[in-house]
């Protein structure tokens, strides 16, 4: 699983770098986007269908934990919601571009097509929009700007959402740093153990390597440090992560069901 990065604005109307889901991010401005807006779509999440691993903020852990594994990846050990076992396939989004009922939709997905990028020249964050998004059209149902060239109410709400997301992202970085400082991370392995025809367990197959919180290291912390984690809310988020790891089995079962359905669909 690769790190998700953004790069500074290079030229007006264009930024470079790779950000999951964003193919053509442009700094939002009335000159370029004054006539554009977002049209209503019955399948608004089709863009995320290929996102099998989606960045997650720490405040989302309790809701995301009931849907699938929450793991930590890369040198930065940033949290990720695992939404599929195979690259390019989000198991929670159907072929029509809709999330299956009851599954949590990460804020990273909900903020699309907006994203902030760093502008080193201006020393500030710049709100960008993915011009390649299929639901951005001229004369959209929710315009980006009003007739005076000012951000519309829709854009203001999206800006507020992105601002809140950035604050949660910073809080997530602090949470991860706390886990690093306490040396709570360890390498974990997700395995799939198939069953043999005679009812015995087959040979384990490795699905993923990732970073997770070590329960042994957590238990070994001094009582005062555990109390500190409890009081600042970090302990609840750690437990949400640990509980979420049971979701590997659910994700494996769901993947197998979908694979069995595909040949049937092809022959129907």
Description:
With 268 residues, the chain is α+β, with helices and mostly antiparallel strands. The chain has one domain. It is 32% helix and 22% strand. It is built from eight helices and 13 strands. It has helices spanning 30-33, 61-64, 107-110, 153-181, 215-219, 223-231, 234-244, 247-267; strands at 9-11, 14-15, 25-27, 36-38, 53-55, 70-73, 78-82, 114-119, 124-130, 136-138, 142-143, 185-192, 205-213. A three-stranded antiparallel sheet has the order 3-9-8, covered by helices on one side. The longest helix has 29 residues, at 153-181. The radius of gyration is 21 Å and the shape is flat. The relative contact order is 0.17. Mean pLDDT is 86; it is low at 1-17.
What is the element layout, followed by pairings?
Elements lengths: L8 E3 L2 E2 L9 E3 L2 H4 L2 E3 L14 E3 L5 H4 L5 E4 L4 E5 L24 H4 L3 E6 L4 E7 L5 E3 L3 E2 L9 H29 L3 E8 L12 E9 L1 H5 L3 H9 L2 H11 L2 H21 L1
Helix content: 25-40%
Morphology call: flat
Which strand-content bin applies to the residues? Answer: 15-25%
Derived structural class: alpha+beta
Provide the domain count: 1
Sheet having the most strands: 3 strands, antiparallel
The low-pLDDT segments are 1-17
Round the Cα radius of gyration to an integer and report it: 21 Å
Q: What is the compact description of this entry?
A:
The chain is of the alpha+beta class and 268 residues long.
Give short descriptive properties of this protein.
alpha+beta; three-stranded antiparallel sheet; 8 helices; disordered N terminus; 13 strands; 268 residues
């Amino acid at each position: 699983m690769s790190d998700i990065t953004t790069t500074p604005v290079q030229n007006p109307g264009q930024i470079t770098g790779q950000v999951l889901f964003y193919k053509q991010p442009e700094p939002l401005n009335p000159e370029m986007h004054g006539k554009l807006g977002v049209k209503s779509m019955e399948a608004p999440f089709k863009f995320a269908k290929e996102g099998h691993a989606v960045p997650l903020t720490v405040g989302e852990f309790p809701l995301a934990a009931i849907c699938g594994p929450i793991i930590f990846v890369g040198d930065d050990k940033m949290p990720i919601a695992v939404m599929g076992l195979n690259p390019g396939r989000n198991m929670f989004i159907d072929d029509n571009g809709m999330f299956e009922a009851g599954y949590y939709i990460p804020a990273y997905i909900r903020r699309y097509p907006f994203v902030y990028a760093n502008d080193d020249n201006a020393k500030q964050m710049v709100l960008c929009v993915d011009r390649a998004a299929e639901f951005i059209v001229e004369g959209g149902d929710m315009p980006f700007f009003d007739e005076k060239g000012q951000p519309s109410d829709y854009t203001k709400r999206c800006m507020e959402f992105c601002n809140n997301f950035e604050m949660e992202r910073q809080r997530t970085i602090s949470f991860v740093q706390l886990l690093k400082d306490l040396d709570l991370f360890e390498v974990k392995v997700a395995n799939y153990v198939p069953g043999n025809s005679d009812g015995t367990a087959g040979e384990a197959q490795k699905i993923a390597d990732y970073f997770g919180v070590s329960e042994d290291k957590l238990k070994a912390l001094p009582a005062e440090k555990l109390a500190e984690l409890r009081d600042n809310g970090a302990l609840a988020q750690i437990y949400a992560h640990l509980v979420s790891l049971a979701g590997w089995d659910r994700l494996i079962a769901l993947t197998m069901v979908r694979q069995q359905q595909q040949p049937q669909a092809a022959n129907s």
